[in-house]
């Protein structure tokens, strides 16, 4: 596994743990659809949350959340609809009252704990 991929996987584990500590239930990780991958899907009460995780070793090239572009958000939206179709659920149906997209930015400093920022409802 490339070092960049290992950093990303570690960031996803940190993000999942953060979400669970905030009371969300992680439903799926690294779900692959026809147009890409969703990092995490979680339940926040009756809300389905698609979570994009961005991890960086520092902020020299910008904050990790800055890498989430409008095109990326569109892809997340389409993939979330596909996930719902595959799992037999619909927004407003019995399983989920609504759907939202969150971003979890993880910065891994040279020393110390990972810094986590959770941006709720970016789309």
From TrEMBL:
Pfam families: UPF0102. It comes from the Bacteria. SUPFAM superfamilies: Restriction endonuclease-like. Gene3D superfamilies: 3.40.1350.10. PANTHER family: UPF0102 PROTEIN YRAN (PTHR34039). Belongs to the UPF0102 family. NCBIfam families: PRK12497.1-3 (NF009150), PRK12497.3-3 (NF009154), YraN family protein (TIGR00252). This is UPF0102 protein GCM10007368_17580. The lineage of its organism: Bacteria, Bacillati, Actinomycetota, Actinomycetes, Micrococcales.
